[in-house]
């Protein structure tokens, strides 16, 4: 039996909660759809959920056309010169310095435990949710159901995430109708999707629960744990500005995000990097679109690890550049304050 059965006794007094983030929402009872019935049957068979409870749950889901419109034009589809100003701002840099200062002990412990530096963790939280201030107002069950059943290009992925979400709420003793997050089903300060939450979220302050919504320790520790599991190298380089010689082989830019070459191999093919990074470092050439032409960078293994959080070179570069700005301002603040 699912733990949230008593919820439906209280449903009448909780109506305002059900309409968080439901602009342009459909009033259809999707529990009557064949594909939803199939999903419910699978949840009963594979995970021993109660069929009637799931039917009741999905009868309160509101599909949202707005979500389909937004996911069809994600920020990562913008050119770099439009994407960068969204995240590299004075306000976000200052917010990062403040967050670091307020959570210095936790960030230091995360670094000692997982090897991920404070500025990287802080920058990810800054890009994702402005340090927890913008966690998203879409009801999770609505977002995931909309994408699972009304967005064919990625319906398989989001049906899996809907499955993971229901498992997560059962395991964490959370009301599945109550949780809010992004239009794409990401949750909390760290914007973990449900499968990532189940696998990588940790109780970093040992209070007996994993809380990525209101607990900075758990958010910080979970980001560090995620990056560590995906191969973060302590003290390893992230990215370096590069130049390329005229006539460089375009195939160097068609190899995806994984650093499958060494820096020496890139140099031998016309890539110029001035920073003192060892030539045997795995590396990939990255091109970013500016108003005046391409801007080139070399991404190393830690750059690739950041793209495991969001599979975009733009995202990883925004995190890296924001982290560098936060680090510089943090150091400057400590120096000027005499710390």
Structural write-up:
Among the domains are: 5-71 and 136-186, Bacterial muramidase (Helicase, Ruva Protein, domain 3); 239-330, Lysozyme. Helices cover 48% and strands 9% of the residues. The chain has helices at residues 34-47, 51-59, 65-71, 80-87, 90-102, 104-114, 118-129, 140-150, 155-172, 194-200, 216-229, 263-268, 301-309, 313-336; strands at 138-139, 180-181, 239-244, 261-262, 271-273, 282-290, 293-300. A 5-stranded antiparallel sheet has the order 4-6-7-3-5. It starts with 33 loop residues before the first helix and ends with a helix. 43% of the residues are buried.
Strands, helices and their partners?
Blueprint: H1 34-47, H2 51-59, H3 65-71, H4 80-87, H5 90-102, H6 104-114, H7 118-129, E1 138-139, H8 140-150, H9 155-172, E2 180-181, H10 194-200, H11 216-229, E3 239-244, E4 261-262, H12 263-268, E5 271-273, E6 282-290, E7 293-300, H13 301-309, H14 313-336
Antiparallel strand pairs: 1-2, 3-5, 3-7, 4-6, 6-7
Helix pairs in contact: 1-2, 4-14, 5-7, 5-14, 6-11, 7-11, 7-14, 8-9, 9-10, 13-14
Any descriptors?
single chain; 339 residues; alpha+beta; Lysozyme; five-stranded antiparallel β-sheet; two-stranded antiparallel ribbon; globular
Short structural summary:
The chain is built from 14 helices and 7 strands.
Q: What structural class is derived from the secondary structure elements?
A: alpha+beta
Q: Mind telling me the C-alpha Rg?
A: 22 Å
What CATH calls the topology of the domain at 5-71 and 136-186 is Helicase, Ruva Protein, domain 3
Overall mean pLDDT stands at 90
Shape: globular
CATH C-level of the domain at 5-71 and 136-186: Mainly Alpha
Largest sheet descriptor? 5 strands, antiparallel
Instruction: Label the CATH architecture of the domain at 5-71 and 136-186.
Output: Orthogonal Bundle
Instruction: Write the H/E string, N to C.
Output: HHHHHHHEHHEHHEEHEEEHH
Which residues sit in consecutive blocks of at least 5 with pLDDT less than 50? Answer: 1-23
